[in-house]
């Protein structure tokens, strides 16, 4: 997924620039029906652990909700939130925190 699939602080609302990438994911999943999609939400370290866990789950859920509107069956989606436990950048700067507020998608073969 492109690095632009990130969120504002405290938000789980999809930005308009997410839709082209998510539409492409929907098209790929339609072609490869024997796959599962892991959707993992992440946050920066702003706020409490409990708040960030819930926020990361909601971020992943908002992506799953959108993909469901693109004819991706919910039964093919594994939705999870990781809170702030898996940063990809340094949380001591705004630039780093903005990179950590993300959702990652991984297409997997069905088990």
Task: Describe the secondary structure blueprint for this structure.
Layout: H1 19-31, E1 35-41, H2 49-69, E2 77-81, H3 94-100, E3 103-109
Parallel strand pairs: 1-2
Antiparallel strand pairs: 1-3
Q: Could you walk me through the main structural features you see in this protein, from its secondary elements to its overall organization?
A:
This protein has 111 residues and is an alpha+beta fold. It has one domain (16-109): 60s Ribosomal Protein L30, Chain: A (2-Layer Sandwich). Helices cover 37% and strands 17% of the residues. Strands 2-1-3 form a 3-stranded mixed beta sheet. The two termini are 22 Å apart. The mean pLDDT is 92.
Structural class: alpha+beta
By CATH reckoning, the class would read: Alpha Beta
Return the domain count. 1
Instruction: Give the total of beta strands.
Output: 3
Beta-strand proportion: 15-25%
Could you state the CATH homologous superfamily?
Answer: OmpA-like domain
The CATH architecture assignment turns out to be 2-Layer Sandwich
The largest pleated sheet is described as: 3 strands, mixed
**What is the CA-atom radius of gyration, in angstroms?**
14 Å
Helix content: 25-40%
Unreliable segments of 5+ consecutive residues: none
Mean pLDDT: 92
CATH topology label: 60s Ribosomal Protein L30, Chain: A
Q: Record the strand order, biggest sheet.
A: 2-1-3
Which of globular, elongated, flat, extended, rod-shaped describes the shape?
elongated
What is the count of DSSP helices, taking H or I runs of 4+ residues? 3
The separation of the N and C termini measures 22 Å
Would you list the SSEs in sequence order as H and E? HEHEHE
């Amino acid at each position: 997924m492109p690095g632009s699939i990130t969120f504002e602080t405290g938000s789980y609302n999809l930005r308009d620039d997410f839709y082209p990438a998510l539409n492409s994911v929907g098209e790929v999943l339609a072609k490869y029906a024997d796959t599962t999609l892991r959707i993992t939400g992440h946050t920066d370290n702003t706020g409490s652990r409990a708040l960030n866990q819930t926020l990361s789950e909601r971020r992943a859920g908002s992506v799953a909700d959108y993909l469901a509107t693109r004819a991706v069956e919910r039964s093919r989606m594994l939705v999870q939130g990781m809170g702030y436990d898996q940063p990809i950048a340094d949380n001591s700067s705004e630039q780093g925190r903005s990179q950590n507020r993300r959702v990652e998608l991984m297409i997997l073969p069905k088990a």
